[in-house]
Every structure is written in C-alpha cells, then in structure tokens.
Amino acid sequence: MNHDAEEIELPVGQLRLTARVHGPADGIPVLALHGWLDNAASFEPLAPLLEGVRLVALDLPGHGHSDHRPAGAHYHFIDYVEDVLGAADALGWERFALLGHSLGGAVATFVAGACPERIARLALIEALGPLTEHPDETPRRLAHALDRMRARSDRPAWTYPTIEQAIEARQAAGGLDEAAARLLVERATVAVEGGGVQWRSDRRLRLPAPYRFTEDQVLALLRAIRAPTRLAVGDRGLPPMARPALEQRVAAIGDLTIDHLEGHHHLHMETPRPVADALGPFLAAPLRS
Fold first, then answer.
1. 102 given a catalytic annotation
2. Distance in angstroms (rounded) separating the CA atoms of residues 90 and 77
3. For a Cys-Cys bond, which of 12, 53, 132, 194 suits 86, CB 3.0-4.6 Å?
4. Domains of the chain: which residue ranges?
5. Facing residues of 160 across strands?
6. Is residue 3 predicted with pLDDT exceeding 60?
7. Residue 234 CB neighbour total at 10 angstroms
8. Which residues on neighbouring strands pair with residue 54, listed in sequence order?
9. Dihedral angle of Cα 128, 130, 133, 137, to the nearest 10 degrees
10. Of all residues in the chain, what percent carry a pLDDT higher than 70?
11. Is-contact 100 58, C-beta < 8 A?
C-alpha cells in the first residue's frame, strides 16, 4: 500500500469514518467512494497518477477501518448519501468533485442529483446509478429481506489461517488479479488471537436490501445532476451500454462523456493508467463557481 498517503479520521454523525488522503493540500478537492465490500485501498493504484487533486478516499461505514453502524441499524443505500455529505462537511468542503466506483459511483450520482450546488464535477467508474426494481417486486423483496434478517447468525466470523488464503478467496469472489485483491484484503482484514485473519467489514453488509428504487426515481435524480460528468467503463465490466435502460440513464444526464476502456469491473485497480488519462485532467480542472 502507498505509505505516502495520510490516514485520517472524520466524525460523521455518531460514526468515526476513516480515509486515505493523497495529493497536495492545495489540489482540487475530490472525495472518492469505493464499491461494495471494497475499501479506501481501491484507489491506491489510481491516486498517484492523478495530478493536481487532493484525493480523499473514504472507507464507507462498515467497510475498511470505518465504524460499523450501531446495533439495530441497517445499511440502506440511501443512508450513504448522508454519510458522504457528512464526510465533506467534516473536511470543510462546501464544493468538491466526486469520484465513485460501482456502489460508490451509484451513491455519487444520488449526491450529485440531490445536492447539485455542492458537486462541481462527477467522475464515475463502472457505475451509472443503483440497481432498480419494478414496484410489483416490493412485497417479495421485503419478505425475503425480513427472513434473512431474522435468520442472521451470530456465530463468529470465518477465520482464514493466513492472509494469503483470504486474498485467494477475494480473487475467487470478484475476479480480481492478485495485486488488486491484496490491496483490498490487507485493509479489509484484522489479525486474530491464535493466528489467522478475519474480515473487518460488517457482516450486515451482505444482507439483501429490503427495497430498491424504481427506474423512474433514478432517472429523476440523474436529470437533476448539474455537474459535468465523465464515466469510464471497461469492455468486460458493466453490461453493454447499448441496452434501453442504460441508454435512458445516459440520456438523462445533461453533460456526460463516456470513455470506453479495456478492462474488468475493477479497471481503476488493474489498469489504472488509461483510467487516469481519461479522468485525471477532468478532475484536476479548476472548479467552476
């Protein structure tokens, strides 16, 4: 991991969120949001290639070194929007750029749509809003989520005898190369007494969502985005862009540029240079008033 980065803590509501800070203090303020079950280390390969920006890579609640939500709470997608704004407030950033991958990119679109006056620029990697569902699916989804919540086991988390085995498990689960998986796992695990490692992430993150937004709701938020937006997609990542639902989302954002790059879903980790070439100058441009 890049040890030149600074580790910081941010008070956000009742939580303590952690982040890794890269770049000069006078750089363009950029808040970076990782994907589901990833962490701030997701941006380690990309950050050194982004010139002129002050990149703060956040550990979302329940991820990385950040606090877990309190007992009885859940990890609803919409709550991350408030977490992100709280982190920006803690940094003293009134207006800033957002960089988001996967889940983090979906959250970033909602922040930019709900608070357009605060987001000067929006950069997305393999993300264009969250998953949606037809309203008729709501009863089935809620029933399933409630069943899973009630059945949740309190047995101890699984222990891997070595961190190498945890890295292999992360590779198998996400199709990552070894270097990318190692970066994420080193930040996502904690050594346990007697040997071995366990995941730091909150096990509640794996519970199914009790509801999803409708496509019309997502489109309304995408239409509300005022920031110039740039999207980097891998040729082996997101589903093909030529799908009616994605085409509608593309059309909903007024100022959107799409960069089609070679790579998988974690292309910012596995092939960071093309991503930096596409997004770096965009993020480093002076903020418009």
1. yes
2. 21
3. 12
4. 6-133+211-284
5. 197
6. no
7. 22
8. 29
9. 170
10. 96
11. no
